[in-house]
Amino acid sequence: MPDLISVDEAHRLILERVRPLAAERVPIERAAGRVLAGTATAEVDLPPFASSAMDGFAVRAVDVSAGGTLPVVEEIAAGRPPSRALAAGEAMAISTGGVVPDGADTVVPLELVQHEGSRVTFGEEARQGANVRPRGGDTQAGQPVLEAGTPLGPAQVGALAAAGVSEVQCAKRPRVGILVTGTELRQPGEALEPGQIYESNGLMLAAALGDAGAVPAQLGVVADDEEELRRTMERALLGFDMLVTSGGASVGPHDLVRAVQAKLRAEEVFWGVSVKPGKPVAFSVRRDTPIFNLPGNPVSVLVTFELFVRPAVNALLGLPDPLPRFHTGRLAAPVRRNEHRDELIRARTAPREGDETLLRPLDGQESHMMVRSGTADALVYVQAGADELAAGSSVRYLELV
Predict the structure, then answer these.
(1) How many CA atoms, within 13 angstroms, populate the side-chain half-sphere of residue 34?
(2) Are residues 365 and 341 in the same domain?
(3) pTM of the complete model
């Protein structure tokens, strides 16, 4: 296949043409897994009042001395503010999270006092401001909590909720159609006739797209029939934010995808990348709808999804750095490099040596060996070259989840 481009060039061309989707308001209880499309600001000061960091006694520091006693005039529980301000020479019992009364500037922990009846005795002097969480000490109303482009995980959702945010602006989750081609394909559970195999790419793509934050829709398997493929693709390009196909992307007589997309007036951005597995991967755009054509071999689908499709989903979601997140590790065994193309090697991570992860390549790296790939948790990026990478060599890798 002539005119293969590099992985880096493919990334550049994809990100030139894929832009974040429009934003929508999302209730905070459904925001996990989404990406902020605008800055979220605090609705309240946090804490919204001066509160106690400990179970203890709210006092004025100047009133406390080692061995001294004070009368306990009230008990303050979380959610039950004091009825009045603290006067000089008084103490109020207070629970963690309780409102520190006006007039108090310190909370002395329970373990540093003796409490008998209506009086408390202190074991040492108090430090002004100790164990008091000041109002707005975490953030103040109107201040940014999280910026646009932030992925919302558990910690981020918790931060927004604590700051009183009930709704956030998020990029829409891209709706992605999955179209698998191949007359020989049958669904798992059906009886196989001679020459037939089970279809796995659609299920794998649906799982990967859901993990990436998209809303996948399987459009079924289309036989190697040009007119049927044209009708199915045309409908899909009207109803989805992105289309991903599997199979039919090479140069054989039954590989019809390229011809059909040309008839549908899709702009072909690239067809073929210098990578193994996955060389025939292609990317086109039709009326701002990205189209990825992945090879039919399952491992090629796995690799090209992580290298190219996931970054496109990230860009649609508005992530500021959508490209693959490579980590650094060391090979646990030698690897022969491919002389002409960069290669993604399936591997298992092993216990760390020092600060770096060890990567053990799997036996059986052919692109049809999907069952063996099911044990991989990493893709090791091996740049093209004529030599061998020795065990212990530093390499980049992608995590597989």
Answers:
(1) 24
(2) yes
(3) 0.87
